[in-house]
Amino acid sequence: MAYLSTRAIVDKAWRMGIVVPAYNVPHLPMMEPIVRALRDTGSFGLIQVARLETVKFKAESFARIAGEYEKFKDVGFTRLHLDHVPVIDEDGLRIDYVEEITEAMKLGYESVMVDGSRLPFEENVEATRRVVEAAKSFDVPVEGELGAVIGHEAGPMPPYEELFASGKGFTDPREAADFVKKSNVDWLSVAIGNFHGAVAPGRRDDKKIAARLNIEHLKKINEVAGAPLVLHGGSGIQKEYLREAFKNGIAKLNVGTNIRQPYEKGLEESVEKGRELVYAAMIDVIKNELGVEGTAEKLLG
Given a cut of 90, is residue 109 above it in pLDDT? Predict the structure, then answer.
């Protein structure tokens, strides 16, 4: 069977209304049970790490994650993705984002994400375009973000229902079309009611709110964006909203909290217990939350 690129796989998922889940690895020992669960269920998924997971958790570095992936990867079920590399990070610091993303591509990451969502629109376009240009020589697809997917910041968050009702931070459909055209980005992460799991110390164990998604708003974005859409903060979103989102442009979904928290709970006993709980959580996510059992054959066949 020919090796399909991540770009080709996500494009196919978008056309078919199938989602490609992307599983975050903030702790190195989580890699093996994640890959094993994908293989055992015939489910395709991306293995990913975000920059903040190398800074605030135990992923250590892009190189260590890439090395661990090489030990356990199964190309019939997995590809390696670089999640959030922000232009301005959660602490308000400017990051040398092009250099860090280029380093990851040299290490073999098969798709990458630049997050310029904290920038004004035109600066976000320019930052994303710079990464798209850098990625051309690696033939690697680039994910950008437009809108405010909150949750990583320190401090209290406004009430969820208040945020949802106001639509504050939601991706503007008109801006989405302009953003994709100007930046030439491959995939677009959108904000439609989703939010990230907390990463601030003291809040990491918080149970995520059962978020909703504004599907009508998503439909408007999907009609004009002309690119596969991405949903961050996939853990905790009510199932009925997820299934509708997959039919309306969401081709990639990030999953972090639902598998990180079980690992950290199990780690109180042992690393092996943590791995055991990650595997069980993965099976539940694949079969019950997302309904993506058996997608590898559909997407790679």
Answer: yes
Q: In DSSP terms, which residues pair with 252 in a beta bridge?
A: 20, 230
Percent of the chain with pLDDT over 70: 88
Q: Give CA–CA dist 83/47, Å, rounded.
A: 9
Domain range summary for the chain, segments of one domain joined by +? 6-300
Helix ranges (DSSP H) in the chain: 6-16, 31-41, 51-55, 62-72, 97-106, 121-135, 160-166, 173-183, 215-225, 239-247, 257-266, 271-284, 295-300
Q: Which residues of 211-224 are buried (b: 16+ CB within 10 A; e: fewer)?
A: bbbbbebbbbbbee
191 DSSP β-pair partners:
none
Reply yes or no on whether 74 is catalytic: no
Q: What is the pLDDT of residue 175?
A: 96
75-99: pLDDT as tens digits: 999 999 999 999 999 889 999 999 9
Query: Rounded to an integer, what distance in angstroms lies between the CA atom of residue 108 and that of residue 62?
Result: 10
As a whole number of angstroms, the distance between CA 13 and CA 19 comes to 6
Alpha-carbon distance values, 261 to 83, 226, 257 (Å): 19, 35, 6
Closest CA to 199 of 264, 282, 144: 264
Q: Which of 83, 115, 172, 186 is catalytic?
A: 83
**Cα distances (Å, whole numbers) of residue 112 to 29, 170, 237, 289:** 22, 23, 24, 25
Domain 6-300 = CATH 3.20.20.70? yes
**Alpha-carbon torsion 154, 236, 35, 84, what sign?**
negative
For residue 94 the two structure tokens come to 């400017």
Residue 236 backbone class (left: φ over 0; alpha: ψ -120 to 50; beta: rest): left
Of 199 and 254, the structure prediction assigns the larger pLDDT to 254
| Per-residue pLDDT tens digits for 215-248 | 999 999 999 999 999 999 878 788 899 999 999 9
